[in-house]
């Protein structure tokens, strides 16, 4: 449990913000380790060049800044949406799904540059530490992981600021006071939690929402769009083919403008406590509705119901940090198998927080007008078959009723 | 499979409408059976006295007209909502949950009045025939079930109308032409399907919606309400205690006015085909959100996740008509066990189709400010525990990684 | 439901026995259809040439006799054993798994020879009719299926024998009386049911068992064998590589001689009733134990537990006849994904009905001596990690206990 | 993580053996705490009075020695067997199920005698520490738990023996050397692991087995018994009613004499590693077979299959130590619901390791001769119903096949 003091070189997940800058310095001073920084553009909507300058300023020689938005969407977000993954009935796993990718790159960079450790800025109370570390260990069993928030001696914000000052880490004026809540963001979502949000009985203040307009502020007229799918993934909007991250970005814009994807919830963390969060997932909320709609005409009932039953486990795996586990890979294999013919288009109306499916069509549709019609179906379905179907389904229930003397 | 011609007395689920009136007459003339009618007030919003008059006119001597709204809510709808039951990710099972109650009363009345058969007006292509009949057989294994739509020789609407005319069944003018779609309604929902709705690519016409205003038409200002829960069931609105059916009716009004609970979907029927339906479940949609919210602070993670995993099966059982099956009773026992401490209040904003949870509180809350806080928690949680937690959770992943030579 | 009288050419699953010979003749005379026969060597241990002669004698021009044992093992039995599939805790699905293969060939032959129908000899009370027909419809949605046992007018054995006599079908003397029970056999198992076995309270007579010696009669000395696995499938016995069907045949011999694989059970049929069967699965019983044993050292816990949870559904799908369903393919994809590193050898002692695993080893073993040892593990595992692991796992339980006032 | 040094009074799970005697002394000397001992008769087959004398000798004033065998069987073992619980396909959870009971009594005694802590002798690598501690925390969230094996400084057996000698703890001569393996025993089973058993490729030496004769040594003639059940629990053997623990003891004798219940496995521990164990569960092995057999005629298919699907989760919960969790209680509620009519008798032959079900009968049997018979069933089952049943089950598969162009 004690800090692995024999670390020589460590790759830090570095945002350029105050906290990870303090961590950077702490790794240098306390551990005497060489620090390599990794800053990812996950679509969080922040400039990354300031992170480079800050790292340079602190003497970092190996600075990795990468745009991983396409990989993030293609290899993480979209596979997850194939499963219609929702944690605890509501949360679209926006933070959870980004962590494995960051860890993957940290481990890869460590391997490339001969580092023996990685470090992250997640606290000891949250899920993210678990996600970072399980992913890292799954990809390199011998990697050392440093989680300064669990290890250092700082007791308060003041201690941190003192350390910053002592080590000439510039502290923006507005960072002197504590932020009223904590934020994580990427292309899929923004989450806010802590401080002013800590009482789940209290409505979240309007200023917490940063990524969407409120339903009230959204336009009074619906926006209609069409999303095209192939093999279970979205591939176009209104007929225009797009790369995964471009498509998600476009959906985000549409969702943002129409007040879509806000969520206020209390969730169960893997580390055993409940926490309250405000999530904004504008594009993802649209995508989920659209994906379910295209599945509704292209997926067989057996496949659809099996997916629905497996989904909560799958979502839990991702939430808990087991993306790189054999059980997640097993479920992914099952899910991907189901998506082979999930293609076609879905038409949606976006209106003041609502995502309304109004039409779906597909060359691979299993919907059969001939079968379902109230009109003469010309023999496609023999209604008399239903009598036998019901009688055999009822047989065991009748046997039970007889036993009960009913 | 042949019609059981030796029926002496049959209890018919009778709405008073044209179709079941034709069935009534057909049972009298074709079967030569004495017909007893059962008409239930399930909250469908129709006068029932006309059904009595019509039945009398056709010579029925035993006419049962009952208000079962309270039983419906208390013993069927609310137990189902304890499970957060949703079929195929979206459908709140409004039609499915009413059928077992109707069958239960049909079978009970048959026993009381010495009838050997029951009859219903569901067609041979739908789920309702299955639900009616499985329920009936589960409650009386020797009951005979007559499903005229599967059995008679009528081939078209014209045949039906001819039969009506020949038998002096009054046909309202507006029933001469075929309805543009088919409707089922009860206190929980209204469903519309068929005809103009048969093409899932086409948006449903506005006139299909009968029970809710559209989000667009709903007020520009949100309505805020508080729902109180006890043992997992809603018991009050804005502090006013209400009987189950009164509470649901009030939620329906609130939902209707705020454009809440509309759903356009393609679902998989138990009989093997896909169908497209328009559902309006105004109160139920509010209730589901509220129930999940009160659970979010009063239900432990283990219980909550187990419920989420069991739910799709439970919903499927209800959809398929297995309400009175041992497996549904098993799951209900598990679900009810989980609800013992699900109590407290949830505050919601209803706004143009949105049900927005803004606060929840409970004397039985498991949410612990002390644990989750970003501030000093005075030892409630030792962040160093997380290191051991992660390392043991990672152990098997590291062992795997070593095997793979990672 | 009525017999499709417009059948022109039908492929019959033909065993050469009395019953399917009567069916053959009935198809010719009643339907006036041209009959093509298909007789498969599934390892049932019967000569197939007599079936050819009998078919020729009855004027059949297209006679298909095929050895499908290898395909049966490789593409049906072994994939199923990867899942450790067991129905209702005990039944190894020996009959269930053979039906889809037979249907597959019937449908293929029908396509090749221009037949519009297939026919089988399964009765209307059993599972096999369902398995045959679901498989056939899944592979050719337009195929007609004829199940004479459900359709003809014969009421008794005497009627059948009269028909046979009238149509010059030779009836072996010992077939004049009714068999005291009914048998199905293939390379995986033999099943016996009906008649003398119908009372589940009565012990099965010794003469029912045809494929194994009783444990009492088996040798007094154990036989030790080693089974080698690759990708989850058995590939060798005692170091000798074997083709799938040869390997299973060898295990059958070993099982038979050592009294292994007998089972007396009451099972739940898909058609809604319970039935009592006697199964003998000598090789399969050994294989299941060995497969679980090799998995025990090569499969990670997450994969293993997920497999165990999915297994009952998978087994039910096979039992119910849904081999060619999308949901079975989804689960197979998940299962196969888990088997990539399931390789190595298992040593077993076979003794009077017992299959005793005594050793297992693998280059891909996840068992770590270093981790588990009671001795000094040189830091492979830090026991102090367990404290944090337990405390975080306990956190939610402690929170619950506090609420309960414990 | 550091040892809670402020413990005043601690209840120790005390066996009277060397290890827990060392722990007792260590708690006195290192912690300066008053020690209360709890020694339970769980049916492990050891005299408990020596434990009293030893405790007295070490100055313990509060000594609790209790016979909990009946409670163990009635409230822990039997509820678990209602579920047919088996971990990883083979392990009957004999150790796992005893831990919660011990913790329950430790916590209760602590409450009664004003102790603020409990202590146990489980090591930091095993599952038992988790089971003890999760149970304790679930029953008293504020209890302190001391696990000396995780905390003390002893590095080797020699250190321990030195400490014993220095503190005048008598060490039996045969305990000077290390035991060749480690044992846990109770009325349900004995487990052996470690040391000579650590190589899973090596056959376990014969001397490891202490509770059963080998199949080879068992009698050459089968023993036939009848077990009676009520509400899913065994209540009699050969017609003689027995208390739970007496019945299990009798089954143990029968199993022991007939070489039944031996198991050699590699299992996945909750703490993340694989371990190899030898288990002997003579009576439990008989009981499991008998319970499945009585269920086979009294349990409906829906209930039976749901139980089979839930079982692996239920077993995992017990294995991992979550007996006192809400999710286990939920599943128990479902399982118990299913057992209401599980009554009747099962006849078994016990022979050289085999448990052979040869008959089962019940007044609540759902097995229907009339339905299943090959003979004329007088209309109990209309074979024509099967055609409709199959056709509707096939409908979605045919629709799929059409899409695929089959």
UniProtKB/TrEMBL annotation, chains A, B, C, D:
Alphabetized HAMAP family for the sequence: Arg_succ_synth_type1
GO molecular function annotations of the record: argininosuccinate synthase activity; ATP binding
CDD domains: ASS
Cited Pfam families: Arginosuc_syn_C (PF20979), Arginosuc_synth (PF00764)
GO cellular component labels: cytoplasm
Gene label: argG
Enzyme class: ligase
Protein residues bound to ATP: 13-21, 40, 121
Similarity section: Belongs to the argininosuccinate synthase family. Type 1 subfamily.
GO biological-process terms attached to the record: argininosuccinate metabolic process; L-arginine biosynthetic process; urea cycle
Coarse class of the protein's main subcellular location: cytoplasm
SUPFAM superfamilies, A to Z: Adenine nucleotide alpha hydrolases-like, Argininosuccinate synthetase, C-terminal domain
Catalyzed reaction equations: L-citrulline + L-aspartate + ATP = 2-(N(omega)-L-arginino)succinate + AMP + diphosphate + H(+)
Source species of the chain: Aureimonas pseudogalii
Binding sites annotated in the UniProt record for L-aspartate: 123, 127-128
All copies of domain Arginosuccinate synthase-like N-terminal, residue ranges: 9-170
Protein name as it appears in the record: Argininosuccinate synthase
NCBIfam families cross-referenced by the UniProt entry: argG, PRK00509.1
Subunit structure: Homotetramer.
UniProt keyword terms in alphabetical order: Amino-acid biosynthesis, Arginine biosynthesis, ATP-binding, Cytoplasm, Ligase, Nucleotide-binding
Cellular location(s): Cytoplasm
């Amino acid at each position: 449990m004690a800090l692995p003091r024999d670390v020589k070189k460590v790759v830090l997940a570095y945002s350029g913000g105050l906290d990870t800058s303090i961590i950077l310095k702490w790794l240098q001073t306390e551990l005497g380790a060489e620090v390599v920084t990794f800053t990812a553009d996950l679509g969080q909507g922040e400039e990354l060049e300031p992170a480079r300058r800050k790292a340079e300023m602190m003497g970092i020689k190996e600075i990795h800044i990468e745009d991983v938005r396409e990989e993030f969407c293609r290899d993480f977000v979209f596979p997850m949406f194939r499963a219609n993954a929702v944690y605890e009935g509501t949360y679209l796993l926006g933070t959870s799904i980004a962590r494995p990718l960051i860890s993957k790159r940290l481990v890869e960079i460590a391997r490339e540059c001969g580092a023996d450790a990685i470090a992250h800025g997640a606290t000891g109370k949250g899920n993210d530490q678990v996600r970072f570390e399980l992913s890292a260990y799954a990809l390199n069993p011998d990697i050392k992981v440093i989680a300064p928030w669990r290890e250092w001696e700082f007791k308060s914000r003041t201690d941190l600021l003192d350390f910053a000052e002592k080590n000439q880490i510039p502290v923006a004026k507005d960072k002197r006071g504590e932020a009223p809540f904590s934020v994580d963001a990427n292309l899929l979502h923004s989450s806010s939690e802590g401080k002013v949000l800590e009482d789940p009985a209290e409505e979240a203040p309007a200023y917490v929402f940063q990524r969407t307009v409120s339903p009230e502020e959204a336009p009074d007229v619906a926006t209609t769009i069409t999303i095209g799918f192939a093999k279970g993934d979205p591939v176009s909007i209104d007929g225009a083919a797009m790369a995964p991250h471009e498509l998600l970005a476009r959906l985000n814009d549409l969702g943002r403008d129409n007040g879509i994807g806000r969520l206020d919830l209390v969730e169960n963390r893997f580390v055993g406590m409940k926490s309250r969060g405000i999530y904004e997932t504008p594009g993802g909320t649209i995508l989920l509705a659209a994906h379910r709609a295209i599945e509704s005409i292209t997926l067989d009932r057996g496949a659809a119901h099996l997916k629905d039953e497996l989904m909560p486990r799958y979502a839990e795996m991702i939430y808990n940090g087991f993306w790189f586990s054999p059980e997640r890979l097993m479920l992914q294999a099952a899910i991907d198998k189901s998506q082979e013919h999930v293609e076609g288009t879905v038409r949606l109306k976006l209106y003041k927080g609502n995502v309304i499916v109004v039409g779906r069509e597909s060359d691979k549709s299993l919907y059969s007008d001939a079968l379902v019609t109230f009109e003469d179906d010309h023999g496609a379905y023999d209604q008399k078959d239903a009598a036998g179907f019901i009688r055999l389904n009822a047989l065991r229930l009748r046997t039970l009723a007889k036993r009960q003397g009913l």
